[in-house]
Design goal:
The chain has two domains: 101 residues, Jelly Rolls (Sandwich); 56 residues, Sandwich (Jelly Rolls). Helix content is 0%, strand content 57%. The protein contains no helices and 19 strands. Strands 2-3-4-11-6-9 form a six-stranded antiparallel beta sheet, with no helix packed on it. It has a five-stranded antiparallel beta sheet with strand order 1-17-14-19-12, with no helix packed on it. It has a four-stranded antiparallel beta sheet with strand order 5-10-7-8, with no helix packed on it. The chain is globular, with a radius of gyration of 16 Å.
C-alpha cells in the first residue's frame, strides 16, 4: 500500500491556462499518460482543456457544482456524484454562478478499461486491479490513519473505517 499526502503532490497550470491543477499521482508508459489523479477548482464558466485519447471522470467535492455541455454531452456535476466524459470532446462549464467548486479528477488512457469511481465509507473493498482512495476527511484504511487530502494506492483488499468518506477509484488493465 502506498500512502501519499499533500506534501507529495505537485501544482501545475491547466493545459488551457485558465487555472491550476494539483496532481496527486500519475502513471505513464513509454512517455504516454495511462492514469492521472488530480484536484482542481472550477471558479467560473468556461472551457475545459482537451485531452485527446483520454477518458475523464470528475467528482465535485465542495461547492455548488456546475453543468458540463458539449457535442452530445449535457451533464450536471453535483457534489459527490461522479460523472464521466471523453477528454477529446470540447466541453464548457456553465451554471457556476461565479462560485468555486473543488473537484477530484480521474484521467485514463482510452486503451484502458474505464475506471469505476464511487464514494465509499465504512466499507470492505475487495482486491482487484488498483484501488485509489482519496480521503475527504479523517478516516482509516486497513487500520492506517488518513488525513483529509491523503491518497492511498492499494492492490490488496482495503477495509475503510471512520466518519468521513473517500472517493474510491478502481483501475484495471495497468
Amino acid at each position: 500500500m502506498i500512502h501519499l499526502t499533500p506534501a507529495d503532490y505537485t501544482r501545475q497550470p491547466w493545459k488551457n491556462g485558465k487555472g491550476l491543477t494539483t496532481e496527486l499521482w500519475r502513471l505513464e508508459k513509454d512517455g504516454q499518460l495511462l492514469v492521472r489523479l488530480s484536484r482542481a477548482s472550477v471558479v467560473e464558466d468556461g472551457p475545459f482543456s482537451l485531452f485527446p485519447g483520454i477518458e475523464r471522470n470528475l467528482t465535485v467535492l465542495s461547492g455548488p457544482g456546475f453543468r458540463l455541455t458539449g457535442a452530445g454531452l449535457n451533464l450536471r456535476c453535483d457534489p459527490l456524484v461522479p460523472v464521466a466524459f471523453p477528454g477529446d470532446v470540447e466541453v464548457m462549464a456553465s451554471e457556476t454562478g461565479g462560485r468555486q467548486s473543488d473537484d477530484f479528477n480521474v484521467m485514463t488512457a482510452k486503451s484502458l478499461p474505464k475506471p469505476t469511481v464511487w464514494i465509499a465509507q465504512n466499507d470492505h473493498l475487495p482486491a482487484g486491479g488498483l484501488l485509489a482512495l482519496y480521503a475527504l476527511g479523517p478516516c482509516r484504511a486497513n487500520g492506517r490513519d488518513l488525513s483529509p487530502g491523503d491518497l492511498i494506492l492499494a492492490e490488496e483488499a482495503v477495509t475503510l473505517a471512520g466518519d468521513c468518506p473517500v472517493v474510491a477509484v478502481r483501475l484495471s488493465g495497468l
